[in-house]
């Protein structure tokens, strides 16, 4: 599996950055055309679309709240823990991509300082599921960035060889990603453009992570069994945090993540002991 993933990553070319960059430019031009480059205008032009999407998706609060957790770094790490033994190349790309996405998230949120929907609209007019977020850090969506960062790393890792399956795989992966990121609108945490921009930034972060890991072997130690105790400790800490979350929120996604972590911890301990 690791060899196949390495081969898939080696086939990627720089032109893959053109589409996301084009989309970002298109969004900026659209906002400029709508005179929506100011904070007030940005939120105002999305009011109707936000209420519409929030109303329809927010009608399924349990589903939305579970799915939106995929944008939590702890959940992404827990699910990806399954690949630490069988496909460390994914982790090499994911670690670089995560650092880039974290940097871009903090930088862009501080730069734009867009107030969240709960800080702009009357709470009685839309559905809020979970914590009420009312800070000035709406653009871009950090959850969307996290989802598409992990999504992109996985999408290209398991990309089929033949053209037709490759096209189907790509669009299916993007569709699933969009379903997950728009839960941020469904729970009342973000505007539609927030999650679209976040998705694009996440895609770029994932690609950059792949290219960096391909050229620089800074994470090659991930595949070295003598460093497995680091991951064992990390996974156990994450498991404790998840158990605490289950106690307080009791979401299905937390149970799934915990199972993945415990299985991964078992496998990594087994391999380490047998070295």
Automatic annotation (TrEMBL):
It holds the Pfam family PAP2. Residues 89-210 form the Phosphatidic acid phosphatase type 2/haloperoxidase domain. Keywords: Membrane, Transmembrane, Transmembrane helix. The chain crosses the membrane at residues 12-32, 67-86, 93-114, 167-187, 193-214, 226-246, 252-269. The keyword Amino-acid biosynthesis does not apply. InterPro entries: PAP2/HPO, PAP2/HPO_sf. The keyword Hydrolase does not apply. This is Phosphatase PAP2 family protein. It comes from Flavobacterium supellecticarium. The lineage of its organism: Bacteria, Pseudomonadati, Bacteroidota, Flavobacteriia, Flavobacteriales.
């Amino acid at each position: 599996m690791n060899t196949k993933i390495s081969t898939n990553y080696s086939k990627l070319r720089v032109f893959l950055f053109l589409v996301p960059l084009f989309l970002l430019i298109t969004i900026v031009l659209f906002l400029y055309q709508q005179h929506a480059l100011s904070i007030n205008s940005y939120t105002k032009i999305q009011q109707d679309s936000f209420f519409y999407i929030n109303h329809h998706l927010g009608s399924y609060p349990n589903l939305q709240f579970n799915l939106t957790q995929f944008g939590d770094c702890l959940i992404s790490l827990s699910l990806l823990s399954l690949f630490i033994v069988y496909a460390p190349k994914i982790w090499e790309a994911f670690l670089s991509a995560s650092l880039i996405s974290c940097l871009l998230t903090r930088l862009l949120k501080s730069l734009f300082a867009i107030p969240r929907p709960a800080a702009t609209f009357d709470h009685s007019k839309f559905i809020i599921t979970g914590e009420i977020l009312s800070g000035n850090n709406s653009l871009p969506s950090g959850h969307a960035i996290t989802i598409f960062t992990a999504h992109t790393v996985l999408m290209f890792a398991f990309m089929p060889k033949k053209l037709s399956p490759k096209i189907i795989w790509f669009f299916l992966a993007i569709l699933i990603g969009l379903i997950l990121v728009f839960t941020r609108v469904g729970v009342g945490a973000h505007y539609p453009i927030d999650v679209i921009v976040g998705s694009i930034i996440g895609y770029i972060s994932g690609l950059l992570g792949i290219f960096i890991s391909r050229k620089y072997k800074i994470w090659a130690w991930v595949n070295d069994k003598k460093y497995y105790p680091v991951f064992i400790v990390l996974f156990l800490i994450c498991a404790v945090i998840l158990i605490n979350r289950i106690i307080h929120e009791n979401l299905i996604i937390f149970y799934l993540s915990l199972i993945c972590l415990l299985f991964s911890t078992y496998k990594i301990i087994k391999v380490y002991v047998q070295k």
